[in-house]
Amino acid sequence: MNQEEYKIIIADDHKLISDSIELIIRENNLGSVMGKVANGNELFILLEQTSVHLIIMDIRMPQLDGLKASEILKSKKNHSKILVISQYDNIEFVKQFQAMGIDGYLPKSFDINDFITAIKKIKAGEKFFPLLQNDNSTTHSSKPFSSFDNDRYKLSEREIEIIVCISQGLTSRQIAQKLFLSEFTITTHRRNIFRKLDIKNAAGLIFFAKENHLI
């Protein structure tokens, strides 16, 4: 199976997150996103129209959450693989999904490399449960973003403000106008932010902001 044939659906009610996931998939040639939905009901409507190899699904969604949607998918013997993404890192909760037959469970404290690894392993027919591994060094990021520690990152108040603006989808010009700064100043701050956080692109920055409750 080549990468172009690997079809994916993203189920997450936060548009910034689903857009970022799609960007990572596209930039790393991990597959083709066939659609993005905001809840389990929309997921099943889309699955009536197309079959996919992988469903990337958040737990907390309105109307029909990821847990219930996963249970229904497995009861219907749907052949799509399921990668669950969740803010919960409780081991017993993860084991519940593993017992259900889910193919992977990734806490939202992951970094982009963990996410890429998860998809590659699931595509290869493997399971991916980093929280259940005894050796976290093989599957867990060495730089979890589960809580915001500004003593660690040394971000200024202005830089945090710019992170929020970038995560809201504003361009450098729009941020400059909003904060009454020059576009050159915003570009300089942006470069410093990426360096301090060791982040390569806007998708990574959005994940950081989301997981540290900045947005």
What features would you describe in this structure?
The protein is 47% helix and 12% strand. The protein has 215 residues and is α/β, with parallel strands linked by helices. Helix 1 (15-27) packs antiparallel against helix 10, helix 7 crosses helix 9 (183-197) and helix 7 (157-167) packs across helix 10. The modification 4-aspartylphosphate is found at residue 58. Residues 146-213 form the HTH luxR-type domain. One of its GO terms (molecular function) is DNA binding. Residues 7-123 form the Response regulatory domain.
The CATH homologous superfamily of the largest domain is called: Response regulator
Low-confidence stretches: 134-147
Q: State which percent range the strand residues make up.
A: 5-15%
The structural domain count equals: 2
> For this structure, what is the CATH class of the largest domain?
Alpha Beta
Main sheet overview: 5 strands, parallel
> Under CATH, the topology of the largest domain is which?
Rossmann fold
The CA-CA distance between the termini, in Å, is 38 Å
Total of helices:
10
Strand line-up across the major sheet: 2-1-3-4-5
Domain Response regulatory: 7-123
Pfam families: GerE (PF00196), Response_reg (PF00072)
GO molecular function: DNA binding
Keywords: DNA-binding, Phosphoprotein, Transcription, Transcription regulation
